Structures are given as structure tokens and as C-alpha cells.
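thought: fold this chain, then report.
action: predict
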Amino acid sequence: MAEITTNFDSYERRMWAGRAAAYTRSAASLCGAVRDQVLDLAEVAGGKRMLDVGTGPGTLAAAAAALGAVVTAVDAEPSMAEATRLAVPGADVRVAMLPDLPFPAGSFDAVTANFVLNHVGDPAAAARELARVTAAGGRVAVSVWPQPPPPLQALWGEVVADSGIPLPEAPRVEADRDFPRTPEGLAALLRAAGLEAVRVETVSWTHRVDPEAWWSGPANGLGAMGTRMLDLPPGSVALIRAAFDRGIAPHLDGDGRVGLPTSAVLACGRPAAG
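observation:
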């Protein structure tokens, strides 16, 4: 395991500790919505050596294995790595974190990092590491949530404001290490990491989810809102839950599921020749 070097990384490790099951119930389907697009951008195919960084419960790793790729997967959180071992029995799954992956340079034909660069304290160093382990002619593909947040993610800020419960500021990536969470910002990050032929696209969709599953993420300490709720008294949590119910009410469909627009920024590139 790489040494944790920033306060943001320490915060992330605490947030994710032991929470693979909570993530699988709440946000895994959201993050997995762009699975096929990320794999296509990485040109994952049968026989290719594929590394999935920040694999979570193995959503991309399992899909890549189904395509016939030779899959390696890493996650900084042991409970996520264990979930991936169960989901993808043939994969080489390890506990490791950016920006220090335990592989020689040029080890993989395809490297994916699905909603990972938004969870590291030094995105530039992380992107350089993704490029380092990618073979000449290979491809790196990444995704991030955009800023400002789309309506689905913006809902949480609206809920907190409506609840009247003041929450402390969540830790952020240090300003001199951060990058704009925009198509232009992500493209610049990958180019600075030594990737060329960088291509960026924005994918938009309506995410539909059971309200209890969506609430279960922050209720179990996940996300910026969830970590700030952990020390609240039950009465304050109840007020936030009531605000959540009010906030989702206009967005419920006939089956009682929340439906809100969201989007992601995807990008890919190849290691520079020579």
C-alpha cells in the first residue's frame, strides 16, 4: 500500500473503510452506468491485458472479463478488493492505491479508472501513474463527475439547505493539486500526464433508483454529505431525512423510484510515443 500523503487521501480512506456493501447498494449502479463507454474508450477486448484501478465491487472488471480480457484490478479499500475477488474469480485482484501501483511500466494494454480521479489527493500524480503502467499503443480511459454538479448530485446540497442543519465543510483536494472538473480540465490533466490523442466526451442520462437505496449511501457515511452526518444526533439526521423526502417527491415515478438527470465526463488517451 502506498503511503498516504495528503489530508484528502486520509479522508477518503476513512470514508470508504469497510463500506463495500453500502456502496454496492447505493451508488454502484450509478457509477456503473458508463461501464460500457469506458471499456470502449479503453479498447478492452479479448486477450488484452486490462487493469481496472479503483475497481470498487468489480463492475468494470467483471464486464472486461466477460469480453475475454486478462483482468487485473486494484482498490485502496480491502472490502472492495474482496468484493471484486468474489465477482471476478479469474482476476488478479490486489489492494493498492494511486499514485503508486505495484506494476512495472508498460504492463497493460488497457487501463481504466472509473470515477477514481475525483477520489485522490493528487490527480496529476495519479494520471501520470495510469499512463506509466500503460504499454505503448495501449489506452487509458477515465471518468469523473463534473462541476458544477448535475441535478442528481446537486440534490444533496439542496437537501442540506432545506433541512436547516449546518454541516461542516468536507475536505477538498488542495487547490494547487486540483483540476477543473470539466471536459477541458480533464483533457488537460491527461495531456500533462504524457498521454496523446486525448479524446473527451460528456455522457448524460436519467438515473432511476429506489429512494431507500439512494438515501442509504449518506446514511451509512458515504459521500461528502454522509461523512459529515456521522456525528450528528438522531434528531438532526431525521430533519435531513425529512428534507430528502421533500426533495425527491417531485421526481418520483409511478413505481416510486427517483429519476433525476446526471452526467459524467469521460476521456481517453495513449502514452506518448518514445
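thought: worth noting. Residues 234-248 form the longest helix (15 residues).
final: C-alpha cells above.
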